[in-house]
Amino acid sequence: MMLGPHYNHTMKTLATFFLVGIPGLQSSHLWLAISLSVMYTIALLGNTLIVTIICMDSTLQEPMYCFLCVLAAVDIVMASSVVPKMVSIFSSGDNSISFGACFTQMYFVHAATAVETGLLLAMAFDRYVAICKPLHYKRILTPQVMLGISVVIIIRAITLMTPLSWMVSHLPFCGSNVVLHSYCEHMAMAKLTCADPMPSCLYSLIGSSIIVGSDVVFIAASYNLILWAVFGLSSKNAQLKALSTCGSHMGVMALFYLPGMASIYVAWLGKDIVPLHTQVLLADLYLVIPSTLNPIIYSLRTKQIRERIWSRLMHCLFDHSNLGS
């Protein structure tokens, strides 16, 4: 699994990398493959159902549902970028991946992560306007504003990820081609280079910290203002309804940010303390768990989506039963 001495910078597009999976947990790979397959199936079905319901139902065209639709689509991209290959590694040992496929995977994983954190901020802003400025909701969150927010989120992700991917992919990989990870994660790839990986690692750490840190600060400020407004409502029912909606959003954000931030900073600060298999598991779970649980949380906690899903299911069942009779 070592690249030959003739391999150099100009030939690196021919390289093949080998993903180890989760170092030290090879005996559990089959169970991990089964668990990931179940979670991926739930993620695909749940997020596809949300996208379909929101796109087909004209009553679900409010900004919150549009952002949720995009979030579900991003979750599909994020999970699909890594899970099929991970399942292949864990179940059959097919751990080879070409140079181009590896860096394409890395780009999509990290770009989707950057887009998702932006969407969570946009959804927090949507809830702030809906609860704190309800009379101005439609005037503030116009279709043009929503489009502008979406474009800014995508441009921000591309602006961050394109230089990072270029920096890493243009480093000379002339040593080991064994990646101690279950997908082409940036830090794991940077460790294989023969050049100094510190510039790209610092760029990744600083860029991620700025984006995630600023988003978390603004999200926290939004929900702080929301809670002040909610507890100022005279109606207990209105308070409970607002808290229920915000609670589901905050749960989704906790599922995304906590494992993600732990994964980023453990790789830097705790690499000599936290076992490698724990670091890899954290990086894997923060890509898969939110994508799996987001549609469950939103479909169960959002009344309108729950009602539309139930209505569609009943419609399909009764239509099939009538055709059969």
In short:
Putative odorant or sperm cell receptor. The protein is 75% helix and 3% strand. The chain has 325 residues and is mainly α.
Provide the CATH topology.
Rhopdopsin 7-helix transmembrane proteins
Radius of gyration, in Å, reads 22 Å
Continuous helix count: 10
Q: Helix and strand string, N-terminal first? A: EHHEHHHEHHHHH
Mean pLDDT metric: 82
Strand content: under 5%
Shape: globular
CATH level 4 superfamily: Rhodopsin 7-helix transmembrane proteins
Number of strands: 3
Main sheet strand line-up: 2-1-3
- How far is the N terminus from the C terminus? 62 Å
SS content category = mainly alpha
**Which bin fits the share of residues in helices?**
over 70%
Report the major sheet.
3 strands, mixed
Return the CATH architecture: Up-down Bundle
Number of domains: 1
Low-confidence stretches: 1-14
CATH class: Mainly Alpha
Describe the structure in your own words.
- InterPro entries: GPCR_Rhodpsn, GPCR_Rhodpsn_7TM, Olfact_rcpt, OR51/52/56-like.
- Its main location: membrane.
- Belongs to the G-protein coupled receptor 1 family.
- With 325 residues, the protein is an all-alpha fold.
- It has a single domain, classed as Rhodopsin 7-helix transmembrane proteins (Rhopdopsin 7-helix transmembrane proteins), CATH 1.20.1070.10.
- 75% of the residues lie in helices and 3% in strands.
- It has helices at residues 29-56, 63-92, 99-132, 137-140, 143-169, 186-190, 198-231, 236-269, 276-301, 303-324, and strands spanning 16-19, 96-98, 178-179.
- It has a 3-stranded mixed sheet.
- Helix 5 (143-169) packs antiparallel against helix 7.
- The longest helix is centred in the middle third of the chain and has 34 residues, at 99-132.
- The protein is globular.
- 36% of the residues are buried.
- Mean pLDDT is 82; it is low at 1-14.
